[in-house]
Amino acid sequence: MDITGSTAIVTGGASGIGAAAVRLLAAKGATVVIADLQADKGEALAEEVKGVFAQVDVTNTDQVKAAVDAAVAIAPLRAVVNSAGIGWAQRTIGRDGEYDSAHDLEAYKKVIAINLIGTFDMVRIAATAMSRNEPDEDGCRGAIANLTSVAAFDGQIGQAAYSSSKGGVVGMTLPVARDLSAAGIRLNTIAPGLIDTPIYGEGEASEAFKANLGQNVLFPKRLGKPEELASMVVETITNSYMNAEVIRVDGGIRMPPK
Ligand SMILES: NC(=O)c1ccc[n+]([C@@H]2O[C@H](COP(=O)([O-])OP(=O)(O)OC[C@H]3O[C@@H](n4cnc5c(N)ncnc54)[C@H](O)[C@@H]3O)[C@@H](O)[C@H]2O)c1
């Protein structure tokens, strides 16, 4: 699928994997709408790629709709990448037998709201806009790539909330791709392993933490680069025969319990 002259939306596009996807989509000729909370980084990247920044919290449907409308106003929206996401680490129960020490339920709901419901909200609104596009020679009107995580399959101790949210993104892949097929819209899901992005924080301590993490990777023994993920994300969008699939991009890692 050719995205030249189209618009693309990348949620979480101001940082990490999303930012790498923004650069690659722009290099392939799309005008990219960077939909993120972080205005400073988002605006700088928009200027670099001659795109647009839209201040979006993916848990706010009005802001999701405004980003989609902004894209459609420029050119037909043919590509969406849902990369906005947050982590959370807490065990399901505490050590002292007190109910108050159990997993923070508001934190659980927040992770689900951003990573899972926010992803689905952008899918349903963006696909509605895509359904109005003229189809290409394959009958394709657009394509969507969602970011899940290997934590959807190998969730570690303390990852109940994060893995639940990412498992939901895996679970929606086939039924949503089936729903959207009638409109000529494809949807795929990418499951990163351990990727070197600001999600692990910045500074000396996080560099040491990341160096240690890389030792668990099968091969090559390092963290992945955001560009290595963006390459697969964009392939699922431009490859017209990719649909309804979940793809791990993880150097072969299988996460241990902790
Ligand atoms: N880095 C990894 O190792 C890794 C591994 C597996 C999965 N992932 C997933 O890949 C995606 C991208 O991760 P990353 O490592 O690039 O993270 P990142 O922290 O570098 O970027 C995430 C971006 O999402 C934005 N964001 C957060 N909450 C938002 C909200 N409510 N509305 C809009 N934007 C919001 C942040 O501002 C940030 O710019 C996430 O969904 C993450 O869960 C990352």
From TrEMBL:
Gene Ontology MF terms: oxidoreductase activity
UniProt keywords, alphabetically: Oxidoreductase
InterPro entries with a match to the protein in the record: NAD(P)-bd_dom_sf, Sc_DH/Rdtase_CS, SDR_fam
Entry-linked Pfam families: adh_short
Matching PANTHER family: 17-BETA-HYDROXYSTEROID DEHYDROGENASE 14-RELATED, SHORT-CHAIN DEHYDROGENASE/REDUCTASE
Protein name listed in UniProt: Unannotated protein
Source organism: freshwater metagenome
